[in-house]
User: Fold these one by one.
Assistant:
Number 1:
Amino acid sequence: MAIYPASTPHSERHTLSVLVENRPGVLARIAGLFARRAFNINSLSVSPTERPDISRVTVTADVEQVPLEQIIKQLNKLLHVLKIVDLDNTDAVERELVLIKVAADETNRSDVLEIVRLFRVRVVDVHPESLTIEATGAEGKIDALLGLLKNYGVIELVRSGAVAVTRGPHALSEKVVGSEIRGR
Amino acid sequence: MVSPTPLQAFSGVQKAPTKTSKQTLVDGEKMTGAQALIRTLEDLGVQDVFGIPGGAILPVYHQIHDDTKFRFVLMRHEQGAGHAAEGYAVATGRVGVCIVTSGPGATNMVTPIADANMDSVPLVVISGQVGVDSIGTDAFQEADTVGITYPVVKHSYLVTDAQDIPRVLAEAHYIARSGRPGPVVVDVSKTAQVGEMYYSWPQKMILPGYNPTTKPHGHVLREAVKLVEQSYRPVLYVGGGAMRSNASAQVKELADLTDAPIVTTLPARGIVPDSDPKMLGMLGMHGTLAATAATQKCDLLVAIGARFDDRVTGKMEAFAPAARVIHIDIDPAEIGKRRQPDVPIVGDVTEVLNALNAEIKRGQAIHGKPNLEPWWKLINAWRQKYPMEYDEKTPDGTLSPQWVVEELSRQAALSTIWVSGVGQHQMWASQLVDFENPHSWISSGGLGTMGFGLPAAIGARVGSSRDFGGKKPVWLIDGDGSFQMTSEELAAAFIDNAPVKIAILNNSVYGMVRQWQTLFYDKHYSQTSIRDGENTEDIINVPDFVKLAEAYSCVGIRATTQDEAKAAIKRANEINDRPVLIDFRVYKDAMVWPMVAAGQSNDTVTYKPGVQPLLHHDTTDSSANGSQDDTASTPVASDTAATGKSEE
Ligand SMILES: Cc1ncc(C[n+]2csc(CCOP(=O)(O)OP(=O)(O)O)c2C)c(N)n1
């Protein structure tokens, strides 16, 4: 039954959306649960939501089904966790922001700019020896962009980690009552 | 229109109102956080508190007076305070409460917190914390208590504002005792202790993320009944969760309704009296042969508040291989954690069993019940052929530890609460004491904490005087090794008037570890001889347990023969004004049988050296001579040594 480590090179990618109370220490509790079970987190982002008392954690990880179920149950046991969903790719919009500093000078700048145009991403900094590109999108697009830019030499790269919402008019937080959450 | 410069744009942003966002409650009694803390405990109905003071919790201790409504039991080590609170909680069914200081006080509490977490013991640990301005500066006696305890608590709080104290404590107390019980840490900064606030009671709890399920779903119950109706070899596998839920009567009713045998885990000993014919005893690594065998051969396993611990299951894939599984637990995370059940039932054990029993009765009225006669024939054959057995005579003329346990049990009042340390003595106590009442066995199961015994016994004794007028005597069966880990609590036992009775099975070694060394490590007895019961030229009895007891004003008795032992136990049972310690000199190479080696299938269970009834089907293995140190027939092939190493 138990599968350890939970993440192997062939495990499927999952996106977990976790609504938590907006209090200090919540992230440490969540991260601790992942770490102990040898969950290889691919990306993790935390930020405020439409409600000041609730934050949203988005975790993407490559993980087997059985340990995933166990970690969802364990996460649910944390009192500060309000709701968890394993977002289904087909029913959710997922995006990531990436900043890429490419080694581009006058010899190849126009080639890079052509890629920028094709992918409908933006240049946010220009230097005689580099271009910094901002890109948002789903994982596939970003991977494709990076694949092309790699040829010019990537000096620096930073990714925000994925964020995701379900399609349609409903919010995950709809069923969470108790807007009085405050302090510790 | 000229667009603003960035700075202007910022200043254009409306400032937050300067008024503090926290509105002050003016209704309520004005007092300090420390006063509020004591008042809250009183209002929660807390009657006994264990702990040790220190600088960072002094404002709170300053508010404990003669007219404070709870009794304070001053321990000698925070670990002792924690285990005492655990023993108190298990014996009384109420929440154990500790108040300790910051830094070292709090770190000393980590072991009992982890212990309570593993065994689902309701505990509230209040620790002092340095002032808010010093948090994170490595101030004197600062430790990140909440951070250190994250992985081993049910929940934790850091309180920085006096006004939060009553609400947080009310929540902590509720969280500790409800759902699956467990330890809750409340780390109270000095700022909050000395700060002023307005006290009101009752408090509104704010716990939007906490909704334990206690009521079972109807349709899973019907599925469970179907399985029960279709099975001819059922077993009820009962764990500590059933005990926490006070489900003795319900378990017994289920057994009687279905005619199913009951096997228990270590913490569930006594859930149904050992004298009940359906009770087969403990299963697993050191369980009775009948219990382990019945579980291996059953076609339906009803797991009741049990979590498939590896000490119970042995090699998981080979555990109860033919069984369908109904798993009842209040914690959804336990279901499917180690084995996927056919019918999962989330809910409080008592509520679930009440509903299930009713549903079974309804079903039986229509369908009757399966004939379990062949099943009981098999079980009774195991019981008869493989009872709990030991050698009463030892090669060196010392006492047989198993005999001592049986004699303690024979002479004990039926109402006795039994407590143990961790090791061989714990297993013998579990195997050989006659348990006739629930909540009468207190032992560290999940964590296996040596040093648990004496303080837990003190806590149980405090609980016994609180709830049962002291009429339930407390016997601690301890190992010489375990006892020395917290023996300083003899002081608390004497001074705080907890007249516990202590039986030390003194084999002068770390017996359980030595047993593994005998079986799996070529009898290389590396660092397991503690020589406290040895009379050699250079070392004589360090410590001398009789003198140690006397040093703490307790009664100390030594017993080396059966006659001395009988007399000592009789005398101990008569003394009720102070703790009594008996130093039983027992055989150092006595072994705990039956045994399943760690990581092996329960089918390999060795009844005694050379006899593995489930492996060879036949039982009359003539090569077995019963000698306990007969390593020629050690139960396990040497290739298991590696597993053994990583396990202990
Ligand atoms: C705190 C702690 N340290 C170490 C162990 C490992 N351990 C398990 S049993 C045991 C020996 C116990 O010896 P003793 O208390 O004398 O009991 P006996 O087995 O001899 O009955 C040890 C060292 C433990 N369980 N707990």
Number 2:
Amino acid sequence: MDFQLTDDQRALQRGVWELLAGRFGRDALRAAVDHGGKVDRKLWRELGEAGFFSLRLPEEGGVGLGLPEAVLVFEEAGRALLNGPLVATHLAACGGLPGAADGTRVFTCATQLRGLVPHFADSDAVVDIHGTSMRVRYPKDLPSARSVRSMDPLTPLHRIPGGTPKAPPRPDAVLLTAAEQLGSAARTTETAVQYAKDRRQFGQPIGGFQAVKHLCAQMLVRTEVARAAVYAAAVTEDFAEIAGAKLLADEAAVRGARDCLQVYGGMGFTWEADVHLHLKRAWLRAQMWLTAAEAEEIQAEALASAL
Amino acid sequence: MDLTYTAEEEDFRARLREWLAVSLPKLPAKPGPLDWPGRRAYDTTWQRMLYDAGYGEVHWDAPPTQRLIFLEETELAGAPYVGANFVGLLHAGPTIAAEGTAEQRARWLPPVLRGDEVWCQGFSEPDAGSDLASLRTRAVRDGDSYVVTGSKIWTSHAEVADWCELLVRTDTEAPKHRGITWLAMPMDAPGITVRPLRTLAGSAEFAEMFLDEVRVPVADRVGRENDGWRVTMVTLSFERGTAFVGEVVACRRTLGELAAAARANGTWDDPVLRRRLGRLNAEFRALWRLTQWNVSESQMTGGVPGIGGSVFKLRYSHARQELYDTAAEVLGPDAFDLDREWTADRLSSLSYTIAAGTSQIQRNIVAERILGLPKGR
Ligand SMILES: Cc1cc2nc3c(=O)[nH]c(=O)nc-3n(C[C@H](O)[C@H](O)[C@H](O)COP(=O)(O)OP(=O)(O)OC[C@H]3O[C@@H](n4cnc5c(N)ncnc54)[C@H](O)[C@@H]3O)c2cc1C
């Protein structure tokens, strides 16, 4: 047993981190906020070229890697707060929909969030995903879709009246969303720790105060527990394990962002600080594909069926 | 990232499983929770059986993965945990192996492995708990001996121990961390009085120790004089780093039993309770994965367990308490019957956030040593 990242996996992780640091740094992030979370098509194609969407396609035409690698990549996306229907387009590529793998088209999904569709106006197509089956619709097929004032400035939302019901969760979608949550949790932890070292009050860094220190320590603990769960679920592909990983990653992301906001004090409550962007997205992702209540029921079911 | 075990590892597992199936039935009946001499005999008998079968050193020299398999299989088979051998096997022993002289290793290690000698830990004092370095028990050099006077508290298994890993102050002038020395004290030396303390669980699993001019040979000092704090850090990294690993498996088993009980008595139909059990399942599963992660990491780096043990201990100690609180919900009023399963465990789980460094102290460690936040008051 060697439950550590291989050299190739580390290299992949570093590569994605470098790509995103270069192409989606702080300025690009804030520009995306100013543009209402609109997908940057040029960046989307670059992600496609880098194999972001085709990662799990067989080597002819794809990268030929597996779920663990996809998880590492989506973790970096979550860390960078990259916007756009990343998981949906990745799934569309896995399902062979043209234009998904190379990032020339943007696919969103109508069955991940009850009644609401993220990035609807921005997408070329809307996919209804039920298990491995996919139904493609086009925004023009859904004329009744109405834009909603989205709480998350990086995720524009449309409501489809009459709604598309949420589909039974598809395991890889759940796990990749959990991976994004993990990345966000890691990022808010790092951000809080850095601020705690820099910001001074009462003549010393606030990180010297135990109340602050303990918030940071708990953020790290939640992140590392979620990491073990998410990585292991990627390796085993066991659905109950995936559900558990989502549960813990949601918690790590949401509570991590809240604690980070607290460490930031008044600054944390401003639009200027990125903390709220993490929190709002984490809240949204926690509702996507699998909620905490659903994940807990799946885990309870797993317990009962092991009897 | 690979969670499959190698053929060699699986082979180790298979042989161990076979041995457990044959050997466990030979173990005498488990003594009652209040019978400490009986428990010592039981725990050391088990250690002797392990030793004779070649598993004596599995906590020390075995590759970390092998140790993980050992803990998993013994727990699944319902074998005893280290019990009274805890200090000797899991931290005094490894400390002596790392810091002791050749003679010291030859003198102390084999009896621990054979289950012949039991150790206890004399670190805490009435006025030195979390602030361990402020300890005051004094050792004054007199010829070939140290003469030790003072008192220790919360010493687990003191009544049945043969040796004590003892921290004493050998320099009262030096800054508090610099005047400490690590000694091995024989528990039958004149001048030692052990007074059992009753725990909230009703048993006497720890004790007060009064030391009145106890003579400890200078030769029984581990490490240099006044260098005991550094040796102590080695001890604590073993204590926190690896000591709780096997128990996660036990918790997962308990959770399964709890689900069965909940189904039997109808509490399973309460969605709040059911979901709480579900969440705990996710929790212990993740803690097991974290264990595998930490073990893989230490396999790579080798040697002394890393600081990740604090991350684990923090989460685990709270999860374990939550487990038994949930058990009480399943049991209802029966949770007050001390003879019911889980009731005593619920009480003993209360110590998990205190013993081996409180949760507050672990958070300080995580924040200062992993995250690099400034040291504070
Ligand atoms: C079941 C059990 C077995 C034990 N076995 C042994 C043993 O075999 N040998 C041995 O030497 N010791 C043993 N101990 C002692 C154990 O290590 C101490 O109880 C522990 O380190 C805490 O010290 P204390 O009890 O003096 O509490 P204190 O240090 O007095 O702490 C009291 C409270 O104050 C908090 N606190 C203290 N300092 C700080 C700080 N800097 N920042 C924030 N909060 C702080 C603590 O978190 C705690 O909540 C055992 C304890 C238990 C419960």
